[in-house]
Each structure stands twice: as C-alpha cells, then as structure tokens.
Specification:
Elements: H1 10-17, E1 29-30, E2 37-38, E3 49-50, E4 53-54
Antiparallel strand pairs: 1-2, 3-4
Length: 61
C-alpha cells in the first residue's frame, strides 16, 4: 500500500479545495409594488406584498 513520504502542507489542501468552498453572491430583486430591494420568493419587508397580494399589513408611517 502506498504511503506518502512527507506530510502535505495546508496550502496544498486549501488550493485543491478553493474552487467550491466560497461565499455565494446573494441575488436581490426590486419589489414591483414599492421598488425597494428584496430577496426573491419572499415577502417584501418594506411594503408586505408578495406576488401582488398583501400578506403582511404594514402600518403607515
């Protein structure tokens, strides 16, 4: 059975792992009701609308 002669350094392992271990870019869309930035497929935190319907009632400021 093959045994490595020397220990691999940390940089070698990290270089090999570097392509897929990273932060992902968060996608942001604009709300069609209030034009505020929001996460897709979620209720808008500023106006409370989702897909044209009011889900969460927000109090007028």
């Amino acid at each position: 059975m093959a045994v490595p002669k020397r220990k691999h350094c940390k940089a070698r392992s990290r270089k090999r792992r570097g392509g897929h271990v990273k932060l992902k870019v968060v996608s942001v869309i604009t709300c069609p009701q209030c034009s505020e930035p929001m996460l897709p497929h979620r209720v808008c935190p500023s106006c409370g609308f989702y897909r044209g319907k009011e889900i969460v009632s927000t109090e007028a400021e």
